[in-house]
Write a structure and sequence with these properties.
With about 280 residues, the protein is an alpha+beta fold. It is about 55% helix and about 15% strand. Helix 3 crosses helix 7, helix 6 packs across helix 8 and helix 7 packs across helix 8.
Length: about 280
């Protein structure tokens, strides 16, 4: 059995691993608790590295959950389909632990084996031999799973289609929007700026198209929390911003600039065919 002190020392690392594997702090804490139950009731002889053993047990618990989701053909939930309390808990953990928002979005799109291989090896430095044992496969196959995940996560960006100043303007605008700085937003938009949004992403009665810098700025302040939960990503190989509170996909923001100012803002849902990569 693993001693209580040994388990508690490993708990933060186990929780961090489980969060990246399952994408939910509630699920992660449940997986850690299941690991403790097994650790406290299983006799293990000659256990030289309790932390490594606990990591293996936890990963198998998480892998079972991921495979169950896959068998049920469960698609990752959009952020607005997750209970508010759970979403807030995920956002709190993600920001507190400085977890990459973009990475969590892409991890959700991997197969269970790819996700486990990548997270264990690339994020937690677990040797491929141990990854292979956890997955019940060969070391070579474990490496292939990690490689495929890496390619999916780190797609090469296309040739730039905007200038450096455009990117700077977009960053400055979103920073102003996140802080509710209307004057700064107005200074960064064209007078005829347009905001178009998917009807599913705005409250009932909210116009799907807003025209004019003042109207766009005023309305944007109502969604500052969403903007604060956005991150730069490649969407269908194009630079964009993705709103992902708690690491859960909600919407894609594509911004068009003209003469160094924001001319159009399009906010849309992702489709089943949309591809994402860390920018």
């Amino acid at each position: 059995m693993v001693a209580v002190a040994e388990f508690e020392a490993a708990r933060p690392q186990l929780t961090a691993l489980a969060f990246r594997l399952l994408g939910s702090i509630d699920d992660a804490e449940d997986a850690v608790q299941s690991t403790w139950i097994k650790a406290s009731t299983t006799e293990v002889e000659g256990l030289r590295n309790p932390a490594a053993w606990l990591t293996t047990v936890l990963t198998r618990v998480c892998l079972d959950q991921l495979r169950t989701r896959q068998r049920r053909r469960e698609e990752p939930l959009f952020a607005d389909m997750i209970p508010a309390e759970a979403l807030a808990a995920d956002e709190h953990y993600l920001t507190r632990e400085n977890v990459s928002r973009a990475l969590m979005v892409v991890l959700d799109l991997l197969t269970p084996s790819q996700r486990v291989a990548y997270v264990l090896h690339d994020l937690f430095d677990v040797p491929f031999g141990e990854v292979a044992q956890t997955l019940g496969t060969s070391t070579g196959n474990a490496k292939k799973h990690a490689s495929r995940a890496r390619k999916r996560i780190e797609q090469t960006a296309p040739a730039p289609t905007t200038t450096n100043i455009d990117s700077a303007v977009v960053d400055a605008f979103l920073a102003a929007a996140a802080g509710g700085d209307i004057d700064r937003m107005l200074a960064l938009m064209t007078d005829d700026c347009v905001r178009a949004a998917d009807p599913a992403l705005v409250p009932p009665g909210t116009p799907t198209v807003v025209t004019g810098a003042s109207a766009v700025a005023e309305e944007t302040t109502l969604f500052a929390d969403r903007i604060r939960a956005s991150t730069a990503m490649l969407v269908d190989s194009r630079p964009a911003r993705v709103i992902a509170p708690g690491g859960h996909l909600l919407a894609v923001i594509e911004i068009t600039t003209r003469d160094g100012r924001i001319a159009r803002i399009d906010i849309s849902r992702a489709s089943a065919y949309t591809t994402f990569a860390v920018a």
